[in-house]
Amino acid sequence: MSWMRGGRQLGVVAAAAGGSVVGFLLGRDERRVSVDASWTTGYTPSVKWDWNWDRRDADSLVKPLKHKPNYNNNNNNNLTNTSHFSNDINNNMIEAREEKLEKERATASRHLIFVRHGQYNLQASTDQDRTLTKLGACLLSSLFHYLSLYVSTYLSTSLPIS
């Protein structure tokens, strides 16, 4: 009877090993299809962001140099350039462009205040009927009143402030 106890233990070990092998084989199914986590994976926008959207970048206001400047003034590596004359012209062009850039560089700061209010009548069937609710109009009026009191010297808006 002692051999049966050993056999029972051996059966439990064999069942556990068999279950592990079956789990391993089922878990590594090569036919399984992987799906990316997001629809934006590898997405490149069709229109790139224009960093000069307000046309204040000095580089866009000053004409570029006609020739690529040689910032390396070492004549030892350049066998075709044997005189210092071209380096002087190169330095003068770079300095003149940097002076123009400094002159055109914006000194004022812009503070954009984006106001989002969402109290619209959404039960309307057309866009013309989707107007501000009374609460939305009240919130907008109080916001413009606050802005006119505290930010009026800096505020430029196309909306009437009442």
Automatic annotation (TrEMBL):
UniProt cross-references to Gene3D superfamilies, sorted A to Z: Phosphoglycerate mutase-like
Top-level taxon of origin: Eukaryota
Compositionally biased residues, Low complexity: 70-82
GO molecular function, one term: phosphatase activity
Renumbered residue ranges of the record's region Disordered: 64-86
Signal peptide range: none
UniProt cross-references to InterPro entries, sorted A to Z: His_PPase_superfam (IPR029033), Mito_Ser/Thr_phosphatase (IPR051021)
TM annotation in the entry: none
Family: Belongs to the phosphoglycerate mutase family. BPG-dependent PGAM subfamily.
Record-given protein name: Serine/threonine-protein phosphatase Pgam5, mitochondrial
Organism encoding this protein: Portunus trituberculatus (Swimming crab)
